[in-house]
Amino acid sequence: MSSNVGIDTLITPPAMLGIVGGGQLGRYFVMAAHTMGYGTTVLEPDPHAPAGKVADVHIIAAYDDPSALDQLASTCAVVTTEFENAPAAAMEYLAAHTTVRPSPVALATCQDRIAEKQFLTDIGVAVAPYAVIITDADLAAASTCGYPAILKTARLGYDGKGQVNVATHRDLATAWQSLGGAPCVLEERLPLDRELSMVLARTADGRVACYPVAQNEHVDGILDISFVPATLPGTGHGEAAKLCRYIAEELGFVGVLAVEMFVVGSDVLVNELAPRPHNSGHYTLDACLCSQFEQQVRAICGLALGDAKLVVPGVAMANLLGDLWANGEPKWERALWQQAAHLHLYGKREPRPGRKMGHLTTTSATVVGATTLARRLRSQLTAD
Length: 384
Ligand code: ADP
Ligand code: MG
Known about the structure:
By secondary structure, the protein is an alpha+beta fold. It has 13 helices and 18 strands. Strands 10, 11, 12, 13, 14, 15, 16, 17 and 18 form a nine-stranded antiparallel beta sheet that branches. Helix 1 crosses helix 11 (292-301), helix 3 (66-75) runs parallel beside helix 4 and helix 5 crosses helix 6 (113-122). The longest helix is centred in the middle third of the chain and has 16 residues, at 236-251. The N and C termini lie far apart (59 Å). The protein binds adenosine-5'-diphosphate (ADP) and magnesium ion. The site of adenosine-5'-diphosphate (ADP) has 18 residues, from strand 7, strand 9 and strand 15. One of its GO terms (cellular component) is cytosol.
């Protein structure tokens, strides 16, 4: 491939980049875009949302507001989303008037667990054993599923929300009612040995860059700690990259894609896809030459993809949830005096329990050292 393939189709500064959704992921995207000289417009109904405060233009309107969509389409060279539940019809409307990356079809697949698992199964990628629950007949048919299981709403779930445990088949109907009888997948609860994720970027002309695999630990369904490099056999990273690249190609994906994986014994199962940068990829902000957000700008604008390699031997990321504010402002100085720690706060006003308010990244000569430091510093933030 010659180095200037596609050079005429690059989207270059000072073009306006549009983004649907104004959370912390959008905020980092906006900051990366501004560093490179692009303009940014954020569509987000919450006037206090983290990305809205830093964007050039904050359209405070519903995600499907027609005049907001017209403004985005007429002013932005490309529109993306950090909010995976952006209404499909809105993204299709935008795509009819400007470039939308990833495509509405790819977004729709990642937005719906039923479509996502069907897609993965169709392309031969292993997923946890599951059944689709849409009707009462599906409830009865699910008697042969493996229990205990987890019932997950097909749409709109995140951070473990929209999920209930189902101990036996007798508990299924009540569990389904508790989720409002919405379309769901019922998944066997697996004895996970490890949870992994890979963030990758892909351009419209098929170039791909994969970040190192992260290993993730969740508490109550919310990502707690993520560390890199993950504990993998020698060939593990290359195999994960091959799998994730294949998924992105089959999806025709353009932008940044995160693939969450379960390791059970010698099996690697794909849990879910996020059509955007990922919480477990935040380590790239402090430990890679090109962060996942700069990479997102590069991918959707058709630029050369940045170097995705890790520049430290070990890195860990600890999420900072609203719970840390229970007794007032955490003692930030305890993290800030450490050279190896990088504090990120998203500028959210209300520290509700379970809400992602920021994260702490730690680097070290070993991944174990980085992980231990991240845990220790986070607990010191609220210690007496
Ligand atoms: P979310 O959209 O909330 O991230 P996930 O499907 O990724 O939803 O589930 C959140 C977490 O719950 C997972 O990262 C994992 O820790 C746990 N989990 C989900 N499905 C299973 C399963 N089938 N078996 C065991 N643990 C699971
Ligand atoms: Mg998940």
